[in-house]
Amino acid sequence: MKYVFEYNEDGSCFIIHNYQDPQGDIFGWDIGKPGIKFTWQGFEYYKNAEPIIPI
Asked: Which residues 6+ apart lie within 8 Å of 5 measured at CB?
């Protein structure tokens, strides 16, 4: 799958564009709602605009 992630000014995910299915774009606030198949599993790095820094 090919996705492009856009973020709000506060760094939270605004929208995820699905390049393979233009009808499959997902708003960040819809993730986890019934009917939304996208999960953050495997995409944790992209959940916020700030990078994940290992401890």
From this structure: 13, 15, 16, 17, 46
Q: Which residues pair with 17 in a beta bridge?
A: 4
Cα separations in angstroms, 37 against 3, 4, 31, 52: 14, 16, 8, 24
pLDDT of residue 51: 64
**What is residue 5's DSSP assignment?**
E
Say what the pTM is. 0.75
Residue 48 forms beta bridges with which residues?
Answer: 12
pLDDT exceeds cutoff 80 at 41: yes
The secondary structure of residue 8, as a DSSP letter, is -
Are 34 and 19 contacting, i.e. CB atoms less than 8 angstroms apart?
A: no
